[in-house]
Write a structure and sequence with these properties.
Blueprint lengths: L1 H21 L3 H17 L2 E4 L6 E6 L2 E3 L1 H6 L10 E5 L4 E7 L11 E12 L4 E5 L10 E8 L2 E6 L7 H6 L6 H4 L18 E7 L6 H6 L3 E9 L3
Parallel strand pairs: 3-4
Antiparallel strand pairs: 1-2, 4-5, 5-10, 6-7, 6-8, 6-11, 8-9, 10-11
Length: 231
C-alpha cells in the first residue's frame, strides 16, 4: 500500500511539472530567452556538431557595443575584440566578419542573393539547420532581396525544391534578422583570388527569427555568407 502511494505521488508530481511547463507565461519564456542570450554572450562558446565529433565554430566571448559606438567607428565591428553591435530596438546582435566585394544594394534595387548559413539554437545548445555543407552545395538558399527606401524585404526561392531554410521551415519568409546586415555589406561575387564575399554573424531573438523560433520563443545564432548570383 505504501509503495502504491509513493508511486501515485511520483505520477502526480510528474503531471504537475508538465502542467507548470505548459502554463509557462510568455513573459517567463522571454525572460528565459534573455538569460540564454546573456549566457551566450559571456561564454567562450564552441559550436559542436550534433554528433559531438567536431568543433564547427569557435564563437568566443562576445564584446557587445552600442549603435553609437558602431557608427563612430565607420560601421565596423572590431574582430580582434570580438565585437558585436547590439541594435537595441530589435535585440539583434551583429558582427561583420567581412564587408564583402561588389556594391551595396541601393534604394530601388533588387538582387538575387545566395545565402550559405549555419543556424544554432542557443536555448537547446544545438545546430538546428545549415546549408554550408557539401550536401547543399548545388542547391543553396537563394533570396530575392529588395531595398525600398531603406526598408529591406526578401523571400526564399522555391526553385529546385528550395534550399535548406525553405525545406526546413516550409515557407518562403526570410527572418527579419537576416536583413539587418544589408545596409552595411556589399553584395558581389568572387571574381579574383583575393576577393572575399560578405560574411556576418548574428544573434537573433525569437521576435526577429523564423516562425518556428517566434512560436517557440527561442533565440538563434547564425553565421551567414551573402553572394550575388550570376546575371
Amino acid at each position: 500500500m505504501k509503495a502504491r502511494t509513493i508511486f501515485l505521488a511520483i505520477i502526480a508530481c510528474g503531471i504537475a511539472l508538465t502542467a507548470c511547463k505548459k502554463d509557462e507565461t510568455y513573459a517567463e519564456q522571454k525572460e528565459r530567452e534573455v538569460k540564454a542570450i546573456n549566457n551566450f554572450l559571456g561564454s567562450d562558446t564552441y559550436i559542436i556538431s550534433n554528433d559531438g565529433m567536431d568543433t564547427v565554430l569557435h564563437v568566443g566571448k562576445i564584446n557587445a557595443i552600442s549603435e553609437e559606438t558602431f557608427e563612430a567607428q565607420d560601421s565596423v565591428t572590431d574582430l580582434s575584440r570580438n565585437e558585436y553591435v547590439l541594435f537595441a530596438k530589435s535585440g539583434i546582435y551583429m558582427q561583420i566578419v567581412r564587408e564583402g566585394v561588389g556594391d551595396r544594394l541601393e534604394v530601388g534595387q533588387t538582387a538575387r542573393v545566395i545565402a550559405r548559413y549555419l543556424e544554432y539554437n542557443i536555448l537547446s545548445d544545438s545546430i538546428q539547420s545549415r546549408n554550408d555543407v557539401f550536401y547543399w552545395h548545388t542547391n543553396p538558399d537563394i533570396m530575392e532581396v529588395s531595398n525600398r527606401y531603406g526598408l529591406y524585404s526578401a523571400a526564399f526561392s522555391t526553385a529546385n525544391g528550395g534550399g535548406a531554410m525553405y525545406q526546413t521551415y516550409g515557407n518562403t519568409s526570410v527572418p527579419n534578422g537576416w536583413l539587418v546586415p544589408f545596409p552595411y555589406i556589399r553584395i558581389g561575387r568572387q571574381l579574383e583570388a583575393d576577393d572575399r564575399i560578405a560574411k556576418v554573424r548574428l544573434i537573433v531573438p525569437h521576435s526577429e527569427g523564423t516562425q518556428k523560433a517566434s512560436s517557440g520563443v527561442y533565440p538563434c545564432f547564425y553565421e551567414i555568407t551573402f553572394q550575388r548570383t550570376r546575371d
